[in-house]
Amino acid sequence: MTEIQYTLQEKDLIAFNAHELEENVMVLKAIRRNQATVPGIIVLIALFYWFWYQDVFSAGYIATIGVTWGVLVPIYLRWNVLNQIRKKYTPQDKKKLLGDYTLRIHAKALEEITPNGKATTDWSEVLRIDGSKNKKYVFIYMDADAALIIPVKSVTEGNIRKFINEADERIMEAA
Predict the structure, then answer these.
(1) Based on the domain organization, do 157 and 109 belong to the same domain?
(2) Which of 9, 27, 66, 75 would give a disulfide with 43, using CB separation of 3.0 to 4.6 Å?
(3) Any idea what the CATH number is for the domain that residue 165 is in?
């Protein structure tokens, strides 16, 4: 029986939601549009002013607006989304979700011991294990948009790599 213990904090919830948004095609399109397309059009207008009207001052002003848009609007969008994620969780939700967790691998199920009690999930119900791109988190997906969040740095007991490998084997066997 492989086991890990870790602590889940609010920043970890935010990181999971940010990870989910990074995978969302609509959000990526909006960021790309505001990072490249809109500024590109604005810079083309600036070039038009420069070549057609020979107005360097207006062209420079318009180009500056385009470049500023390309830099600041995506930063604002990310900041706004993170604030919405923070507001998503009520203090009661945070109290239920945050704290010390223990995950145990059994032959037929994954056992989760949380501050609210104990739960078991059959391996056939676990969709996949996903290590985030930056290797700071491991997500065990139970649903398309719900997962157990394991912050790698906060694992206090157990070997996270051994746990992931064994859990991945159990998921493959159950599939």
Answers:
(1) yes
(2) 66
(3) 2.30.29
Question: SS3 string of the chain?
Answer: CCEEEEEECHHHHHHHHHHHHHCCHHHHHHHHHHHHHHHHHHHHHHHHHHHHCCCHHHHHHHHHHHHHHHHHHHHHHHHHHHHHHHHHCCHHHHHHHCEEEEEEECCCEEEEEECCEEEEEEHHHCCEEEECCCCCEEEEEEECCEEEEEEHHHEEECCHHHHHHHHHHHHHHHC
AA identity, residue 70: G
Q: What is the largest CA-CA distance in the chain?
A: 75
Residues 109 and 166 in one domain: yes
Write down the pTM of the prediction: 0.77
